[in-house]
C-alpha cells in the first residue's frame, strides 16, 4: 500500500510551519492559541498594538503592527514576516475593520482588507511554491439574517454591507484559489455563525434555539478547522467555504 501521512495524527502537526494570524481579537486570538498548540511558529498582526503585543507575549508569538485597510501596510507585513522567518506556510485574516462610512465604503473596506492580505501573502507563497490562505466569512455571506432574533435585544442586525462583503468573499476565495492553484497555494474561506461575546440574554436565547446544543459558537469551535486548513490534512482542498454554525442555517 502507498505510504501516506494523511489520516494519521501527523497530518495535523504544524511543527516547523510559520503561520500568520492577522487580527488577534475574539476569534483570531483563539486561532493563534490553537496554532501554537499544534507546534507552529506564530506571527500575530493587528492595528491595536497593545492588544497584539499582549497576545503575542502570552503565546510566545511575534507581534507585527499592521492595518489591513492599507495595502501598503499589508505589503510591509508580508515582507517583514518573510524576512524574519524565511518562509510563510499559512495566513488567516481575522480582522474586523469597522467603518461608519456609507454602504460602498463599508463593502470596499471589508473586502479590500481580505483581498490585500490574501494577495500580498499569496504572491510570496506562489514564489515559494506552497502555502495556505484562509479568509474569514460569515453565515450572513450566504444566508439572510433572521431579523426577528434581534427584536427586543440590544444587538443590531448586521447591515446589508456586511452581508454583501461576506457574500463577495465566497467569489473572491474561488477566484484566488484558481489563480494560485498552479503555484501550489490553497485558498479557503471559513464562515462562522454567531460567536458568544457577552451579547444580551434575549439575543443569545433567540439565536441559540436554532443551533446545536442550544448555544452560540465559541472561538474554540472554529480553531480546529483553521488548524486543518493550515495542515497537510487539507492538502488537496482549495476554493471551499467551510461553514461552522452548529446547524443554524439549516
Ligand atoms: N464574532 C462573530 O460572531 C463572527 C461571526 C462570523 C464571522 N465573524 C468574522 O470573523 C472575523 C473576526 O471577528 P471577531 O469577532 O474576532 O472580531 P474582533 O473585533 O473581536 O477582532 C478583530 C480584530 O481585528 C483588529 N482590527 C480591526 N481593524 C483592523 C485593521 N484595519 N487592521 C488590522 N487589525 C484590525 C482588532 O484590533 C481586533 O483585534 C471578522 O471578519 C468577522 O466578520 C465574526
Description:
- By secondary structure, this protein is an alpha/beta fold.
- The protein has a single domain, classed as 3-Layer(aba) Sandwich (Rossmann fold).
- Helices cover 42% and strands 15% of the residues.
- The chain has seven helices and seven strands, in the order βαβαβαβαβαβααβ.
- Strands 3-2-1-4-5-6-7 form a seven-stranded parallel beta sheet, with helices on both faces.
- α2 links the parallel β2 and β3.
- The radius of gyration is 18 Å and the shape is globular.
Give the helices and strands, then pairings.
Layout: E1 18-22, H1 26-37, E2 41-46, H2 49-59, E3 62-65, H3 71-85, E4 90-93, H4 103-128, E5 131-136, H5 160-180, E6 185-192, H6 201-208, H7 219-230, E7 241-244
Parallel strand pairs: 1-2, 1-4, 2-3, 4-5, 5-6, 6-7
Helix pairs in contact: 1-7, 3-4, 4-5
Bound molecules: nicotinamide-adenine-dinucleotide.
